[in-house]
Amino acid sequence: MKLVAVSSCPTGIAHTYMAAEALEQAGKAAGHEVHVETQGAAGSTPLDPALIAAADGVIYAADLEVKDKQRFAGKPFVDVGVKKAVHDAPGVIAAAVAAVEAGVPAGAGETPAAAPAAAGPRAADRNAGAGTNVRKWLMTGVSYMIPFVAAGGILIALSFMLAQVAWGGAEGAIEVTGVDQAQVVAAFDPLSLQHWAVVLLATGQLAFGFLVPVLSGFIAYAIADRPGLVPGFLGGAAAGFVGAGFLGGLVTGFLAGGVALWISRWNVPKGVRGIMPVVVIPLLSSAVVGVVMLVLIGRPIAAAMDGLTGWLDGLSGSSVVLLGVLLGAMMGFDLGGPVNKVAYTFAVTGLATQGLASDATQYRIMAAVMAAGMVAPLAMALATTVRKRLFTHAEQENGKAAWLLGASFISEGAIPFAAADPWRVIVSSVVGSSVTGALVMASGSTLVAPHGGVWVLPLIGNPLGFLAAVVVGTLVTAAVVVLLKTLAHDPVVSAERAAEEQRDPALVAPSA
Amino acid sequence: MSTTTPLITADLVAVDLAATERTDVTRRLIELLVAAGRVTDGDGFAADVAAREAQMATGMPGGIGLPHARSEHVVVPSLAVGKLAQGVDWGAPDGPARLVFLIAAPASGDADHLQILAALARRLVHESFRTSLLEAPDAATVAEIVTREVVPS
């Protein structure tokens, strides 16, 4: 068996290294390959990612918070504290082997503080509740997706900013999206700011193309390990193809992980065993996930979108405020998914109507839709700022980028939050976005541009009313999500908090 | 001081150290470090070691006590070794300590020094290393074994 471990201690000069040596020796004696990363005072050399990828399980013999813990996400682990590794390394190795054989990534609900006292593998590790595992799988997918959201979203926002200069005004943010990207790339002029803006936009959009596949792929990876990657990524791409958005990606992630795990447990003849991981599992699981997504889910989604669009068209005569509530709710529901797309397309299609007056309902609808689409990322950014403790570290980091993304009407900034905790985030997002949609309609704000966020503020009629509506919706969504998360017990967040509290005494100790 | 200062010399080794208390043993070893000019303030360093010891006892398997601290009172990374005439409880589950290693690390030790201390900690896990020290006849042999065996990997 291949194991990787991390050791650390308050002073970083004794236990860290004794634990490392003891684990390596005990592993060797028991016939296992053990590689230890010593996070001590002499600096630590990170484990080779290939070693981590090949490892069957992880040992945390760490009294400080493990650095870059997400590297080990999804692998079975034991968390024993450094002292136990020094005094009973063979026992720790045995516990790790047992955890690997149990096959389930261990529970995060246990606090490290309780760990050193435990004698063997902690029972809770292997019997982690189903809810805890689902959260961990989700968080694995989300943690890999977040850098794509941040990189892609910020590139797009930068493109909008640059476009203002390049085209000389707020229209730039609109112009930049109307350009034929292939043509610009083919005849790229390094002196043209417009070309630079287009290239930044194209790069950001490419990064966004990975959001759902990466989310789906790494959920499947967390469930089924490497065999889950191919069907997971493919399922995410299929979800994108049928317009199912990140909710579709969550479905394909779990489906792909489940199918791959199931197939990998088949009892197959010896001759076939060798080609299982490379050919059989990816082939069969991809076929299942692809067919399910394209055939079984794709058509109902397309039909539902048509139905919703027809229904919205039929509502044109009714109260504009009610329409604002509905469109706002749809924008906040799936953040770029099918429902969001119906509302957005409804608004953009209205813009194309010829000969509209400057205060036409179509322009008010566009303003309501854009304002509502800005609420979710801004609210998550606000919530992570005022209530850090309710969010994981990855979410807190993503919250910082979400300010810019929300201000730029890039709703995707909120996807990591919604994917990690769908119902609480979606409920709060829908509530706040519909408030914003209604307020914009009531205020009579108008917008002639299909996107751009604050970058097209000069194109907005009654910009103060627009901004006020965004602020109110943001406050509402942030308040609701904070309330819902306060009432809930999140195993992943609690584990991170426990690790921090464990670490605090070390921080105040004079010798640490 | 330069990195060539050896971690340990014969005058930092106390054989047949007679003491019955952890603090007493540590105190005697610190005196050796102060006498050698490696620690400037014995009381200050003792307080730092005690603080670390209070966090978690440093008794190690195989009859080892490993008090240690990074402290501003330390001039150069040093190791003082005490071979105890009688075992002293050092908080290890498998019994009292017969060999005590006091590690003194400067608060801002450079990587080379810290690598040597890391290598020492790793060597202590090996029974052969501990046995050779327990069986060493005199202070000079103890210092020689440590200097020879503890090389950064």
UniProtKB/TrEMBL annotation, chain A:
SUPFAM superfamilies: PTS system IIB component-like
Entry superkingdom: Bacteria
Protein name per its UniProtKB record: PTS fructose transporter subunit IIBC
InterPro entries for the chain: Bacterial_PTS_Sugar_Transport, PTS_EIIB-like_sf, PTS_EIIB_2, PTS_EIIB_2/3, PTS_EIIC_2, PTS_IIB_fruc, PTS_IIC_fruc
Transmembrane segments annotated in the record for this chain: 144-167, 196-221, 233-263, 275-298, 310-333, 365-386, 425-444, 464-484
All copies of domain PTS EIIC type-2, residue ranges: 134-494
Keywords: Cell membrane, Kinase, Membrane, Phosphoprotein, Phosphotransferase system, Sugar transport, Transferase, Transmembrane, Transmembrane helix, Transport
Mode of membrane association: Multi-pass membrane protein
Species per Swiss-Prot/TrEMBL record: Cellulomonas phragmiteti
Pfam families for the chain: PTS_IIB
Positions of the PTS EIIB type-2 domain: 1-98
PANTHER family attached to this UniProt entry: FRUCTOSE-LIKE PERMEASE, FRUCTOSE-LIKE PTS SYSTEM EIIBC COMPONENT-RELATED
PROSITE patterns: PTS_EIIB_TYPE_2, PTS_EIIC_TYPE_2
Gene3D superfamilies attached to this UniProt entry: 3.40.50.2300
UniProt keyword Transport present: yes
Subcellular localization(s) per the UniProt record: Cell inner membrane
UniProt keyword Transport, yes or no: yes
Gene that this sequence comes from: fruA
UniProtKB/TrEMBL annotation, chain B:
SUPFAM superfamilies per UniProt: Phoshotransferase/anion transport protein
Signal peptide: none
Keywords: Phosphoprotein, Phosphotransferase system, Sugar transport, Transferase, Transport
InterPro entries linked: PTrfase/Anion_transptr, PTS_EIIA_type-2_dom, PTS_IIA_fruc, PTS_SugarTrans_NitroReg
Record domain PTS EIIA type-2: where: 6-149
Top-rank taxon: Bacteria
PANTHER family referenced in this protein's UniProt entry, alphabetically: PTS SYSTEM FRUCTOSE-LIKE EIIA COMPONENT (PTHR47738:SF2), PTS SYSTEM FRUCTOSE-LIKE EIIA COMPONENT-RELATED (PTHR47738)
Protein name stated in the entry: PTS fructose transporter subunit IIA
Species this protein is from: Cellulomonas phragmiteti
